[in-house]
Amino acid sequence: MVVCRDTLYGASDDRKEQAQPCGWSFTVLDDKDEADKQQKAHADATEHRFFLEISRCPTVVTPPPGSVLAGRLARRERASR
Ligand SMILES: [Zn+2]
Hints:
elongated, alpha+beta
């Protein structure tokens, strides 16, 4: 996800008090190139330059074998069968 952090008046503008956040954002599932392309297109169209890139990476954490949590998960798995 790419979010524009610029304001409608631009970052270098003196009227910061009344600056409205741009609010533009682009979300894509797994195509970083497309996100870059859309970000560049927005920057070209608006001269906005400040963006926030947010990426989420799915992670599976498994407890080390023999740990208390591993034992607990194993018992729960047996119980659900
Ligand atoms: Zn913008």
